Amino acid sequence: MSNSDKPGRGQRLWRWLKRPLALGIPIGIFVLVAMGASFQGVMVLSNQNAFCFSCHLSIDTIVQEYQASSHHGDGTKIAATCADCHVPHTFVDKMKVKIMATKDIYHMLAGTITKENFEEHRPAMAQSVWDTFKANDSQSCRHCHQGANFDLAAQPQRARLNHERIAERGETCVDCHQGLTHKRIVIQ
């Protein structure tokens, strides 16, 4: 074969690129796995109380209120984490909340919400959380408070009767249980 019959560099490169199984698929799989593992790692990390506390300890009393509540646990009961209440359990809803939460990071970095002005912003932020709980029928509460964790027969009579009639009154958990984990805010 003479030099004029040999394929040029461009042709050799093109033939090599047309063989996706040689290198492309393994690299693609590696990239997808690495991206998935990184994504999952960020989701797990950002659902930890330590992640939430890293900002809240410096600007408000939310953490101390939570730690004084029954949801924090007493060592004999399983504690509810911040994410158990504030991050939905379904993937799409979880992603919506995570995307919306980036505004909180912005406000923290921009200094619009500070330790000095947190309490004046708190009613609007609390109302937003309560509106979400009402809109999804307190999905986060119901995720844990079901079955043996919500035995109507074991409740005092008044609580049992109120819980039995909650749907017919058009109410949800947060209508009666505001202030259970964080201090009760009066919206004017």
From TrEMBL:
Transmembrane segments: 21-45
Location within or outside the cell: Cell membrane
This protein's name: Cytochrome c-type protein
InterPro entries the UniProt entry points to: Cytochrome_c-type_ET (IPR051174), Multihaem_cyt_sf (IPR036280), NapC/NirT/NrfH (IPR024717), NapC/NirT_cyt_c_N (IPR005126), NapC/NirT_cytc_sf (IPR038266)
Cofactor note: Binds 4 heme groups per subunit.
Binding locations of heme 3: 141, 144-145
Residues involved in heme 4 binding: 173, 176-177
Modification after translation (UniProt): Binds 4 heme groups per subunit.
Family in the record: Belongs to the NapC/NirT/NrfH family.
MF term (GO), any: metal ion binding
GO cellular component: plasma membrane
Residue ranges annotated for the NapC/NirT cytochrome c N-terminal domain, each copy included: 26-184
Binding positions (heme 2): 85-86, 182
Chain positions recorded as a menaquinol binding sites: 82, 104
Cofactor: heme
